[in-house]
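In response to reviewer comment 3 from the previous cycle, which asked for concrete evidence that the modeling workflow produces usable outputs, we include below a single protein chain processed end to end. The sequence was submitted unchanged, and the resulting structure tokens are shown without manual editing.
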Amino acid sequence: MFGRSTDWLLGITGGVLLALMTHYNSLLAKHTTPTFASWIAHGLGAVVALLLVLLAGSRLFRWGSGREEERPGRPADVPRWVYLGGIPGAFTVILAAIAVNGSLALSGTIALMLVGQIVFGLVSDHFGMFRTPKRRITARDGVVALCVLAGSALIIFGGG
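The workflow returned the following structure tokens.
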């Protein structure tokens, strides 16, 4: 039971941090440019990621048995396409900074991001992208996507 509540807490924390990041990044973009704001956001993220990798790497290698082939996270185990993950992330930050400062505002931007994530998740499940098992798209999946899209429309057009 503890693991499930931790998942909920991590999910909510991630959502709050995403909203805060989008808000502060759009404020920076409002006073500079969306591209500069993206560089700042990704520069800070790269520094934090490097520190986390160094911290985790030192612990992983210390806990290992010492044999090279048994160490987890060796570069040979990671597919090369994984390193391209920052490119769509950079575009997401730039487009979010532009959209938040436009007519969509923060809530509309986040709502449409959720719609995009759901649709991409359905497509990647259907085609088995990223080495995931293939799964048929069901009517229930379509209803979920339509409900989120309808909620997004209410946020964007009904928000006044």
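The chain has a mean pLDDT of 79. We consider this sufficient to address the reviewer's concern, and the full set will be provided in the supplementary archive.
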